[in-house]
Amino acid sequence: MNLNHITVIAENVPLGLRNISINYPGVTLTSFSAAQNNTFYYLDLEISETAKVGAIPITFHFVNNKRRSSIFYLYQRTPQTEPEKLSAEDVIYQIIPDRFCDSQPGNNQIKHYFERSDRLNPGGLHGGDLNGITQNIPYITELACTSIELTPVLESNLMTHSYDRMAPTNHYKIDERLGGNADYLSLVEECIKNNIKCIQTFVLHQIGKQHPWYKKMIDPDFFYQSLYNYDDEPLNLNVLLDPYTTEKHKTNHRKTWELPNWPTLNQNNIIVQKALIQHCIWWMETSGVRIIKIEQAARNTPSFLTTFSEAIKSEYPTMNLIFDTKSIYNTQRQLNTLEAPNYYTDYTYPLLLSNVFSTYRDNNEGVTELYDYAAKQDIKADLQSKLICLDNHNLTRAFTNADSESDQLLLMLAHLLTSPGIPRISYGTEWQSKGNYNKGESAVRKDFPGGWINDQKNGFNQEQMSSDKVDFFRQVQAILSWRKNNPEVLKGDFKHYYPKNDIYTYARTSEKGAILVLINNSDQNKHQLNATNYEEILSKYSWGKDIITGDRYMDYNEIITEAKSITMLELFE
Q1: For the residues 141-154, what does the mean pLDDT come to?
Q2: Which CATH number fits domain 5-74: 2.120.10.30, 3.10.129.10, 1.10.260.40, 2.60.40.10?
């Protein structure tokens, strides 16, 4: 499938249609057919390279010799540029637009949308918008993150569950409560100006009931029925990636509706396939975004993911694709038949980090798990394809997993930001946002402090934030800034030492620099570095500088790592 061969769905076609014709140089109507709802027709168009930009008249001929015309617009393609790939030097900042910043309160209550903004409702719309993100690009730049990832932003006109926009009702429209298409394009443009990569998230396996496909029921075969009798087992993403589950069991799970107003799409239907692929291509052409994420990738059929990936790659050979699904199983392994996916999220990592540094477990056992995790990885591959995170929109917040202790959270973030892989931070983690996913999705999707006019505390300018939180923010910012200024080190070699006495040590080295990381997981004991233990690394460098504190060391043996803390030593020849 490519942009020279497309399928158009014509709606509201009266009865008595005899023929359809197109008279436009370079555009040929190769075939047409009625949908099961015969007021809709599928038109297959072939567009030559010589076709000019303009309005293409489509003429509908009826048995009574009457005619009716519709217009299909042919736009200029976006000039192809080589996109910047995500790499280990990047840090992704994930944002739920509705929960970040409400810069335009006037778009919170729009009459033709069912659900209105209600900030007192944890699971409702809170009013954050895309312009709020655009206005705060300087904050993201100052924080030293290099990419932003937006959760879905397409229109989702539902009675409830609108804010996360997991069930689109218009594939070609940004939700007006977020500001609409123009604000989205402005955000992407602002990201480009500031050298920030932008990741757009798509939901391909389901829609909302107010989508014309369902509301007007073009064809029942577009959807799976909502009820299946297999012991009323709830939807479980782990089943979809379990290599030992039967295919019938997986198929039943893919057919299940996540919510009663979220119909699941039948991706075996060829029209559904074409429509989903075409709308993604349309957004890439319209916005210029070249990194896209498929939310809940496992909910899609493997055959469709293959078709989708091949179609996208045929148009954009260097497109960045992220396949994401919340599962304890390795997403990459289960989707390994696909050559196209560039990236996947390792959900074993946040599960591991959630209790490694906890004071409620054996300290040495905790850091030994870090060692074992790293020892099992393909580091070279991790640098190219694995996204790692402490939390996201579907996981308990990192600060909650850190037992609400700043020292623990800093250890977790420091390990995240120096480990092989591409790190992703959820908005507000730098301000110790809390939330337990077991208490519901809304518990981990709280508003960013300062994103609303009446907020007393403001994380964007640090106003009224406690001194402890500001100190923590600056420590995180110091690590992120160092990463941003030393990209080659994070793409370099990885060496580590087996933990002893609650200490785990590892190094990242390249021709352009090096860093030695010492994690002291003890609850009480300080650790004084013995340089001879790390001679293989340290002998190549004459001095070091602590990235967080700025302290310099000409004698490595003077380095003392406090209990429940980390030393991140940049090494110099």
Answers
A1: 97
A2: 2.60.40.10
